[in-house]
Amino acid sequence: MNKLSNSVLYLMSFSAGLVVANLYYNQPLLHQIAVDFGVTESQVSHVALSTQLGYAFGLFFIVPLGDKLSNHKILQFDFILMVISLLVAATAGSLWVLIVSSFFIGFTSSLPQLFVPMAAQLSDDKGRGRAIGIVMSGLLIGILGSRVISGFIGEQFGWRTMYFGATALMVLLFVLLRFKLPRLNPDFKGTYKDLFQSIVFYFKTEPELRLASLRGALSFAGLSVFWTTLVFLMEDEFGYGSTITGLFGLLGMVGALGATVVGKLNDKLPKNRIILFSTLLLIVSWGVFLVSGHSIFGLIVGVILVDLGMQALHITNQNIIFSRNPEGRNRVNTIYMVSFFIGGAIGTTLGALAWEHYKWIGVSVLGLVLSILILVVHLLYKKRV
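Above: the chain sequence. Below: its structure as tokens.
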């Protein structure tokens, strides 16, 4: 069995951030895209929705293969399709073409979710939380940093330039991973059908997995509500463009940089305590958002709290599910992350509708309700954690 060196661990963290960034480049650019194609804010939100749905499909059809195929085989197929999809998005002549290409960008950007169970697999029990935390740090910094980068590039050079730049980055990253990432050859000998039937088995027989998936889905729905509508609030209330909206991602990095700390705490503290604390952080953050529709300072505080709470909950969920079923960590991760991003897609849709009908008050109440639901679920079923 390969030993997880720090150089490999940080390579996975770095790669996870760069690839997952493809999912979020569009969010600060939605207003520009809407103007370019002459469509409404509700219509252009389908770009973000399509990307998240594509990611969920990628998690379901690609990530389980990590328990059956060599990671290098998956890598090669995935990056070819990813580069093509980014190029199509960069040259899209209509909103429909951009929506379809965004689906495949999301589909192929599920690749980082192979790195998380890989880190868990190569770590011992005492260091698993730390390893997951470091990979998740890179992934979340990629999510948050992508908004900063795309907001600036979009405003200075146009939204298409961001997609051309992402294409070049993915080509370079593929070359690096091809030579540096350890090759893993899983033991699963069944068919593709057997692989998916086992996913159903894990879902039916693991109540802890179902609970973690529900908590993850609700929390990411809330986060997607916020990031989908923030660009509209900044334009309407403050008159700021995508650059300022993207800079809010820097604030969210406070939560992302806390990933290693949260991972270490997962190796020491009871999971129930961390889940309760992170859920309360989410509730407080949405309370802050509710009264901050006219306050940049309030929004800043809310962003820091919501990302920190989300990060703590997410890492704890993953540590719980990866501590069981070591032979099927990719399939277990598939169940969790598909639920997670279906929640994100629902949050994107509900957030756009809340903004369209009730503006920021509706958005904040929606996020608050989703966070309270996490607390209710946790208090009802915490004995199973």
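The mean pLDDT is 85.
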